[in-house]
TrEMBL record:
Domain of life: Eukaryota
Pfam hit, one: DUF6533
Keyword Hydrolase: no
Residues spanning the membrane: 66-86, 106-122, 134-155
Domain DUF6533: 22-76
Protein name per UniProt: DUF6533 domain-containing protein
Keywords assigned by UniProt, alphabetized: Membrane, Transmembrane, Transmembrane helix
Length: 193
């Protein structure tokens, strides 16, 4: 059921939604700018290795084989591409569209956290001369935080109910199933992350 309201007390909510959208576009623009400026260096460091010339190679440089770090790096970049496709496909005109979009926003941040955590553990393990004790310590801490950060969105998503609202002519999706401790759970996820 769509909630329609022209209540002026909702204008700060509308303004906050617009500002967060502008902020997201600004962050995305900065990320794309950084990516385009550093793409040549990234290509040299990640995609091309500096092995000596071999007969079967096309170039003087030999292509790097796929490694765990390359896959994780790519996964972290492309994990939000389905989000872009979802926002373009959703019409925001029914319960299921808002519900899917809200759950997608909730779970993609957890997935990104896991990918970044694995990359960080791999780098720290290499920095500490592949110390087994340090690896065990990092994995235990990472698993504890990841389990807690995965349980919290699961609890939140069990009570999530996306709903469409038309506030002063703007279409917005919001959560109707909010509980009193939802803000605390969201803050805990940020604290753990």
């Amino acid at each position: 059921m769509t909630l329609v309201s022209n209540d002026p007390s909702l204008w700060p909510l509308i303004d906050a939604d617009r500002v967060s959208g502008y902020f997201a576009v600004a962050c995305f623009t900065a990320m794309v700018y950084d990516w385009t400026v550093t793409f040549a260096q990234e290509f040299e460091l990640i995609w091309v290795s500096k092995f000596p010339y071999q007969k079967n190679s096309v170039d003087v440089r030999q292509r790097q084989r796929w490694s765990l770090m390359t896959v994780l790096y790519l996964s972290n970049i492309v994990v939000y591409l389905p989000s872009v496709a979802l926002t373009d496909a959703m019409k925001f005109n029914d319960y299921s569209s808002c519900n899917i979009l809200g759950l997608e926003r909730m779970w993609l941040s957890s997935l990104t956290y896991v990918l970044l955590g694995v990359i960080m553990i791999t780098r720290l393990h290499a920095m500490y001369q592949r110390s087994r004790k340090m690896l065990i310590f990092l994995v235990v801490i990472f698993l504890a935080i990841t389990i807690a950060s995965g349980v919290i969105p699961w609890i939140q998503s069990s009570y999530f109910s996306g709903e469409e609202g038309v506030f002063s002519g703007t279409y917005q999706c919001f959560n109707m199933g909010e509980r009193a401790d939802d803000q605390l759970l969201g803050a805990l996820t940020w604290i753990f992350g």
